[in-house]
Recover the amino acids of this structure.
């Protein structure tokens, strides 16, 4: 059978229906993501927390109790080359019995975008109040570790940290 030769006339370049569906889906996802980010306040978040925001975060954690110095040991390098992953260890002197134990340990920073870094929960079954993690530091600042005991008292330790390469800073 003889078939006619393929047409050499140019046909308009229209995308296949699948390509159009993918483009529409991509635009929809981008639009929803931008709306979500706008409603969550990500676009207008400040580059660093204010001293007032830190005081409010600490007051919310302590329930209004005045933190005292002692019992908490904060281990953190005083000079940090890279603020993206700063190792930190917090331990609290406590027998961890039903009568005397640590309920929570929290880390706060004064100049990160959000002053609250982390909160760790404990019970007497933990055996010891100790946590080791990594955190981001936006710039040179003071780091605060707080421990809340089962009797409601709060203990603290602070450390000034110098950061040479900042993290957490949004353009």
């Amino acid at each position: 059978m003889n078939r006619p030769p393929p047409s050499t006339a140019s046909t308009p370049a229209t995308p296949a229906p699948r390509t159009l569906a993918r483009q529409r889906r991509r635009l929809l996802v981008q639009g929803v993501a931008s709306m979500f980010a706008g409603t969550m306040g990500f676009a207008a978040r400040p580059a660093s927390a204010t001293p007032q925001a830190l005081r409010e975060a600490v007051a919310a954690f302590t329930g209004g109790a005045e933190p005292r110095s002692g019992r908490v040991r904060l281990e953190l390098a005083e000079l940090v080359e890279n603020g993206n992953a700063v190792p930190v260890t917090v331990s609290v002197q406590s027998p961890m019995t039903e009568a005397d134990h640590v309920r929570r340990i929290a880390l706060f920073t004064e100049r990160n975008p959000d002053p609250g870094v982390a909160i760790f929960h404990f019970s007497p079954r933990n055996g010891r109040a100790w946590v080791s993690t990594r955190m981001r530091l936006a710039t040179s600042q003071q780091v605060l570790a707080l421990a809340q005991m089962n009797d409601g008292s709060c203990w603290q330790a602070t450390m000034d940290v110098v950061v040479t390469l900042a993290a957490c800073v949004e353009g």
Remarks:
- The mean pLDDT is 84.
